[in-house]
Design a protein that fits this description.
It is a single chain. Strands 2-1-5-6-7 form a 5-stranded mixed sheet, with helices on one face. It has one domain: Beta-carbonic Anhydrase, Chain A (3-Layer(aba) Sandwich), CATH 3.40.1050. Helix 4 crosses helix 5. The longest helix is centred in the C-terminal third of the chain and has 22 residues. By secondary structure, it is α/β, with parallel strands linked by helices. GO terms for molecular function: carbonate dehydratase activity; metal ion binding. Belongs to the beta-class carbonic anhydrase family.
């Protein structure tokens, strides 16, 4: 057996022992308080970033580029894995979490500004991001290096995903929609691993958000107000 798999199973044994009595209330049904949409990245720990150790509390979705969009016959739709907890479990909060140095955003940026060849499955994911990121690429300030450009586009991508949810008829207006960035590269002021709120229900002005949400004003920040 692959040594990493053995280590994972050992870790799972410890998990099972610690969590044995935490599933009593959620064995037959789930009613998560929020759905979180994060990027598929080994550095993005979807439950640990929130300090969550409670089964049933968060409905976690991970994909390349923290997308809420999927392509259907009729065009773009809210992804089923994002919509499911909202439509069927009473979840009334959705959080889209990008992260600094995002590989999906980097690849999409390269695909829009240069040639990039990826396997078909990855290309499909990038194609879902391209139309949403292309206006952001065109609006980038001059003189940015690659890393600075990508981190601005990380915010832009989160904004576009939140915008898609705000405009969707499938998402009730009662659902709170929050966009955020997880920083482990010292891009924002704050500790590594901190989450910075950049968008609430489509509002992305830092001053406006801080006025509207004074209880979390110190967690609201952006690097690009466009």
């Amino acid at each position: 057996m692959n040594g990493t798999i053995v280590e994972l199973l050992d870790g799972n044994a410890a998990h099972a022992e610690a969590f044995a009595d935490r599933f009593d209330d959620v064995q037959d049904a789930q009613h998560p308080d929020a759905v979180t949409v994060c990027c598929s990245d080994s550095r993005v720990l979807q439950d640990q970033m929130w300090g969550n150790e409670e089964p049933g509390h968060l409905f976690t979705v991970g994909n390349i580029g923290n997308r809420v969009v999927q392509r259907a016959e009729a065009g773009e739709e809210v992804s089923g894995d994002v919509l499911y907890p909202i439509a069927h479990t009473g979840t009334e909060a959705a959080v889209v979490v990008g992260h600094t140095g995002c590989g999906a955003v980097t690849a999409t940026y390269r695909a829009l500004t240069d040639e990039l060849s990826e396997p078909a499955g990855i290309e499909h994911c990038l194609d879902l991001l391209k139309p949403h990121l292309e206006p952001g690429v065109e609006a980038l300030p001059d003189g940015l290096d690659g890393a600075a450009a990508v981190n601005r586009l990380v915010e832009y991508n989160v904004d576009r995903q939140i915008e898609f949810l705000v405009e969707s008829d499938e998402v009730p207006a009662s659902v709170d929609l929050v966009g955020a960035v997880y920083d482990f590269q010292d891009v924002y002021s704050g500790a590594r691993g901190e989450i910075h709120v950049i968008n609430v229900d489509g509002e992305r002005s830092v001053d406006g958000l801080r006025d509207d949400h004074p209880d979390v004003a110190d967690r609201i920040d952006r690097i690009w107000e466009y």
